[in-house]
Amino acid sequence: MVLERGEVANSWRRERWDSLRLLTPSWQSRLPGHAYDGADPDGYMTMPEVIAFISRFAAASNAPVRTQTTVTSLKAAGSGYHVETSAGDIRCRTVVLASGACNAPSVPALRQAVPESVLCVTAFDYRSPDSLPDGGVLVVGASATGVQLADEIHRSGRPVTLSVGEHVRLPRMYRGRDVMWWMDAAGVSRQRYDQIDDLTRARRLPSPQLVGTPERATLDLNTLSASGVAMVGRLSAVRDGRALFSGGLRNQFALADLKMDRLLETFDEWARAHNRDDEVAPPERFEPTRAPASSPLEVDLRRGAIRSVVWATGFRPDYSWLDVPVIDEKGHLRHTGGVIDAPGLYALGLPVLRRRNSTFISGAGDDARDVIAHLAGYLASESLG
Amino acid sequence: MAMATVNNGVNVQALLDAREALKGAPEAARFTWRASCKWRNGTHSTSKVRGFFGLGQEQQHKTETSFEADHPEIFASEDHGITPIEYVLVGLASCLTAGVAAVAQNRGIQLRSVESKLEGRMDIRGILGIDSDVRNGYDDIKVTFTIDADASKKDIEALVAQSQKRSAVYDVITNPVNVTVEVV
User: How many cross-chain Cβ pairs, A to B, lie less than 8 Å apart?
Assistant: First the structure.
């Protein structure tokens, strides 16, 4: 059975901002036996479209979903697990944790030092610019969420300052194809967890600076600064009501530019090696991220220039209901490719669980097959024993 | 991993081993660096560095190092040594340079020469108290590396970028740190 605390596609229904679209093109949204069949396969699904897509899959696959059932506790019991839910207790041999890595906003402790006159909003609470007061907005974080919100809030007429730390720069389109097409084609998205040099790092990688728009536009820091968004370095402290930013902005730009170029080289090499050069436009390189002539190292949050702070500083999983000692000191689940180090316990849908695309809709099928094969083997060996 | 033919004189394996070992022993990774300073005369002082704490115990450099600091004659001083703010450039340069060597070793890049020039710009109206809107310290630091190595320009740029990313001095210059000064 599948336990769902709310309705099918619950987090897509309740924990996303209004304008969000998927970062992956619709043709790429593939689940086992279920593909996008709408009018715009190259477009990016809106939230209502995603909700409909997943709901159709739930119906078509006849998944035994129990909705409105919140798990409040999971503990080992005998050779299996005891699950307490808002709709009664369940005993089972095996459990797959598929609650994801984005259950709560991850906000740095320095938030506590922000003066009370400044409204703090996380990507979880944010719905649209209308929910923010008029006046300046500091957006902290420049991954997918941060750049999208900075752009949208700036368009609403509010002056936006974007605090930029380590980030992943990507063009939306490369050589005439969606960058996600390249990721798939060149085998990057299917790269396995046990073939990645620094898996810890890969699992912590910020989401790429991408947006899904009908124009298939690139939303990088050059786009944002050209439209008038002010860039500052990583927010490193709030002291006496003043936000202090790192002076290392240029190196963050350099690192992201170098990494993007390395990825584009991988794509070019793949196209060359597989004789696909004629099928796509010629190789291109993008303008390096332009460093502002000067970027402020501090902003006084008490002076009224900044009226709200949007924390786009990532998400974290919530395992408060998990009474099995499988969480490391950083709050992450200890697992090897989804096999948790407690017999019969498994995970799905975590960053680079088994492949780089483990948290993508299109990555769920392959990961599920692998993890369920292990789970089936475990059940078989248990019954033999 | 590092190829056998590359030798920048950095024992990367020892660094990688330390990284592994300290993953499970965060308390051993807590280091305290120390310096002591004695006023000589005027703006002249002498600082000495020898002992530090790390890996759970007191440690010592092989020899004690002494640093003279003073102001130049145009500040009506005797110029017994470089100014304190110039020591910051020395710290930044040597930290980034060590980083370049270590990262190059780890990436299998043979270095032939690594040179850098540093410029720290500062408006002395700050320290002289002429204008309270002018900060005391550097308002801009520029580091220019000239590197000769068996690598493309892109790979060399990546070395320099990575060395900034992992540099203690770069971090402490670009980000705030709590400073407590007491009198006993």
Answer: 34
Q: Please tell me the distance in Å from B158's CA to the nearest CA on chain A.
A: 7
Q: How far is B44 from chain A (nearest CA, A)?
A: 31
The residues near A336 (Cβ < 8 Å, ≥ 6 apart) are: none
Q: CB distance from B12 to chain A under 8 Å?
A: no
In chain B, which residue's Cα lies nearest the Cα of A251? B161
Residue at A204: amino acid letter: R
Give the other-Cβ count within 10 Å of A135's Cβ. Answer: 14
| Residue in A233, A237, A258 closest to B161 by CB | A258
pLDDT at residue A285, as a whole number: 97
**What is the DSSP secondary structure assignment for residue A46, as one 8-state letter?**
B
> Is the Cβ pair B162, A255 closer than 8 Å?
yes
pLDDT 10s digits, A196-249: 999 999 999 999 999 999 999 999 999 999 999 999 999 999 999 999 999 999
**The pLDDT of residue B4 is above 70:** no
Rounded CA gap, A237 and A298, in Å? 9
Report chain B residues whose CB lies below 8 A from the CB of A241: none
Q: Which residues in chain B have Cβ-Cβ distances shorter than 8 Å to A237?
A: 175-176
pLDDT digits (tens, 9 = 90+) for A184-193: 999 999 999 9
**pLDDT above 80: residue B1:** no
Other CB atoms within 10 A of residue A15 CB = 16
Bridge partners, A166 (sequence order): none
* Average pLDDT score over chain B: 94
**Do residue A237 and residue B176 have CB atoms under 8 angstroms apart?**
yes
Tokens at A332, concatenated: 């992450």
Helix and strand numbers, DSSP H then E, in chain B: 4, 6
Residue ranges of E strands in A143-264 = 160-163, 173-174, 177-178, 230-232, 235-239, 242-245
- Determine contact, residues A189/A183, Cβ cutoff 8 Å: yes
Residues constituting chain A: 385
Tell me the pLDDT tens digit for each residue of B83-129. 999 999 999 999 999 999 999 999 999 999 999 999 999 999 999 99
Helix (H) or strand (E) holding A30, with range, is strand A30-31
Query: From CA A201, how far away is CA A210, in angstroms rounded?
Result: 20
Identify all chain B residues contacting A236, using CB atoms and an 8 Å cutoff. 174-176
Check CB contact under 8 Å for A258 and B158.
yes
Pairing of strands B32-33, A104-105: unpaired
Residue of B nearest to A262 (CA): B154
Q: Assign B13 a pLDDT band (cuts: 50, 70, 90).
A: confident
At B47, phi and psi to the nearest 5? -110, 145
Q: Which of residues 111-170 of B touch A (CB under 8 A)?
A: 154, 157-158, 161-162, 164-165, 170
